[in-house]
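Review form for a predicted model. The reviewer records the input and the model, then writes brief findings.
Reviewer: anonymous (R2)
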Amino acid sequence: MPVRIAQLSDAHLSPRFPRFEGNFDLVAEAVRAARPDLLIATGDLSLDGADEEADLIHAAARHAGIGAEWRALPGNHDIGDEPVLGGRQPVNAERIARWRRVFGDHGWVHDLPGWRLIGLDTQSLTAPEAEAQWAMLEEAVAGAGARRIALFQHKPMTEQRLDDAAVNYWPVLPAPRARLLALFSERRPAFVASGHIHQHRVHRTDGLLQLWAPAIGFIVGDAWQKPLGSKLLGWMEHVLHEDGRAEHHLRLVDGLALHDIGQIPEAYGPLRPLA
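Model under review:
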């Protein structure tokens, strides 16, 4: 029997700021009705878990309340971001420890018939705490056997090409991306499922299939973010067959409010318009 996975991303939940709770309620109802075998949340579950543990606790409870077996990965609003990006919440040991208290591991391996799923914490790939995750990755790839590998992570591997050298807020940074590709060598993942961009996109990048899940909470309007895919809200369903085949479906939900975060400065402050 195939395994059906519901991928939810970028819910941005907080008991202090309930603006995005209604969207999550509708998506949770749709996922519950779909009865997936596994739910994977690919980051930014919380509005500001990087500084507010209550946001992490609330987001964990809301996702667990769907009632499916589930795993989670952190996003920048959950544990911070790579220090080189210069944000106000650099990822550090304290923020990673806070995530672990609420969610457990920030990187993991989950085996299914014919498949090995690797959950990757893309927020801390260059942090001192990252070496344990790199060791986990090496062991996971080496021990996959005949299983196909799928990566689940918050940030996409890249926007355009795998050799892009720009240091950019949106994708995995160039140096850890090169290290990841070298680690996989000729055994590339069957696909990389991510969030973070708040756009839906399915595309092959130098032979690597990238699946961008839409956000649940909000989009980032064109005034503040260039369009690369479709700016809509919803969730993704992945159907994995034991023989290595995979199907990927965008699932839209009626009634979702298409919030534009650029018009909600009370959430994260004013955004800088594109030049």
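Findings: The longest strand covers residues 3-8.
Further findings: The helical segments are 21-34, 53-64, 76-79, 93-103, 131-142, 174-184, 265-268.
Recommendation: see findings above.
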